[in-house]
Amino acid sequence: MRHTAILCVRNEGAFLLEWLAHHRAVGFTDFLVFSNDCQDGTDTMLDRLQAMGVLTHLRNDGPYDKGGIQFTALKAAAKHPLVKKADWILPLDIDEFVNIHCGGHTLGALHAAVPDATAITLTWRLFGANAQVHYTDAPVLDTFTTCAPAVMYWPWRAAMFKTLYRNDGTYRKPGVHRPRDLNEKKLRHAQWVDGNGDALPDQFKTRRIFSNYGRDNYGLVQLNHYPLGALESYVLKAARGRAVHSDDMLGLDYWVERNFNTDTDTSIQSLAAPRAEAHAAIMADADLARLHTAAARWRKAEFDRLLQLEPYRALFGRLLMTPPSQPLSRQAAQFLVHHANRGKRG
User: Fold this and answer.
1) SS3 call for 71
2) Which of 162, 326, 171, 170 lies closest to 258, judged by CA?
3) Which of 16, 36, 333, 337 could form a disulfide bond with 60, CB atoms 3.0-4.6 angstroms apart?
4) What Rg do the C-alpha atoms of the chain give, in angstroms?
5) Nearest Cα to 49, choosing from 23, 70, 72?
6) Taking the alpha carbons of 20, 26, 31, 34 in that order, is the dihedral positive or negative?
7) Which residues pair with 160 in a beta bridge?
8) Number of domains in the chain
9) How far apart are CA 202 and CA 188, in angstroms?
10) Per-residue exposure over 230-250, b if at least 16 CB sit within 10 Å of its own CB, e if not
């Protein structure tokens, strides 16, 4: 089977090769990668990887439709031959890593565990900054091992998922969190399951983008999400803007809702050996090794540049003063949900 991952990147060359190595080890056969407005050489890296036959690279330089950069890329992806011939499709971000807990920890093992599923929700597990202040050129998966507990009651973003779905015509277009453009005639054949392999109600087939609160959704598979990185990296992310709304500068609100470090999860190291082998094969290319080093150096230089500007210097200072986030109790979360529901009714 052909498993196609769709990725959008900007100035993330320092993380690209680890991400690729991991997902090749997981079992993805094809990668369709869009880049835009890169200053760190990410686009040049992608050109080299395409020449090596590792992935397919498209520049997403605009103009962009009203949905923004990422939506424009996904709209183009829906028409691309690589997506059309895929058996399974999963749109991902560079800070998301598929983590399969069953069998040999590959996509094949996941499908064997839920053979009738046509869509599998991969719920985020949020990994915090792990007290890392300075960016270092070290693997993300080795550096950031502290995370939110398996059971979270708040915020709702902690329960968001990405959807690995069969390309059987039920959905005509990929979306950020779930496939889009539903074919109503095929909907009755769709079988959605969660990360535990449990069947999901029909509302997930048409509209849901987050799993239910207050339960462990990670029995078979989870999506390790590293949205923050070290404090220095977060300043660069704030300057880049949101993936969907790139003009919105990130602040402490985004940080506080994701910087959970109460638990430790190293289960993704189940693929450490094949990931290292895949990474070594890629880094054996002298051009890629040089480009990776240049991208890592760019991050340090860009942080130094940004800290000369008041908004980013102030943000970095606030990050230094902000302690790790604490998960809310069920009671506190219920209080917030109660008032959220009142607000919807009002």
Assistant:
1) helix
2) 326
3) 36
4) 20
5) 23
6) negative
7) 210
8) 1
9) 9
10) bbbbbbbbbbbbbbeebeeeb
- Residues 11 and 43: beta-carbon distance below 8 Å: no
Tell me the C-alpha to C-alpha distance, in Å, between residue 57 and each of 60, 191, 341: 10, 32, 44
Residues 23-46 have pLDDT tens digits of: 999 999 999 999 999 999 999 999
Instruction: Classify 17 as helix, strand or coil.
Output: helix
Q: What is the DSSP letter of 171?
A: E
For residue 72, give the amino acid letter: T
CA 197 vs CA 49, 126, 269: distances in Å: 35, 20, 22
Asked whether the whole model's pTM tops 0.90, one would answer yes
Question: What does the chain come to in residues?
Answer: 346
Cα(60)–Cα(32) distance, rounded to whole angstroms? 12
**Domain range enclosing 312:** 3-345
Tokens of 119: 């869509």
> 271-298 pLDDT, tens per residue?
999 999 999 999 999 999 999 999 999 9
